[in-house]
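ingest -> validate -> predict -> emit
validate: passed (alphabet ok, no gaps, 297 aa)
predict: started
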Amino acid sequence: MRGIQVCVLLLAMASTVLAPADSLAVVTVYFSPDQVATTVATGVTSDTISCQGYEFTYTRDKLFTGGIGPDPIGRPVRITWPTGIEAQYVTSGPAPAKASITIRRVDGAVFDLTSFTAHLLANAGAGRAVEIVPMLNGEEPLNDPLVFDVSGNYGMEFSYDTTPNPWGSTAALTGYDTYVVNLTLDFALTALTLTDASVPSAVGDGLPGAGALVLAPNPAGSRVQVSFAGDKSRAPSRAEIFAADGTHVRTLDLGAAGAAAWDLFDDHGRAVAAGVYHVRVQAPGEPPVTRSLVVVR
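emit:
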């Protein structure tokens, strides 16, 4: 389903410092001819455009001379908007760099990178991977980027979404304000789905018709109270906590009161590292909802 902007009611719980507890999520699907891009900035080796509330900064090998003289001629672009966004490996100039596409919201708010398709513009061979670095407030919460295998040849495409996949999954790319997509050769994004769950909504204050999931304090340094505020007869019985990469960290029994304190230790009694964690609950008869928690050390 390309080239349309659809509104889907998703009860995506984000942390109080990241996004409102409730949202009318807006899912934006790129690319199609009706999506007009506006140039925001032009740099020495990159350009920035905006479209439908998002900005894209992508590398261009503009200083390339072709070996035929001293003057830069730049390398030709093979995939142009709105077919996709091409990123070129910067081969010339004082700072050679990977091909890179940086995605952010125009208003700076958090969003999810739900799915993408990478199109190879050079032979990658075996063992090559797209690296995605999620960022929040100018920092990298994860120790390592998420990797997505693109072992293949020129023209091949590789698609990834939230489905569990040993070659890569976007499930952990939620609740960040910037995503940097890197590859050590030319590539293009030819399909992209971004989910904005930060638009305020008036449909309750948490779980549908039931109540709200509260994390306090957030950020947390030593302990956080996980609690359900609402009809206790519909309160979830437990909370599942996951690291940003999707690894299960801890299960909390919320009991009849619908609340429990998390001491920031995992199920094995080990203190968790600083970073972003996701707390998921599910009320009876309702879909699961998640809020994000920032752990500081």
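The chain has a mean pLDDT of 83.
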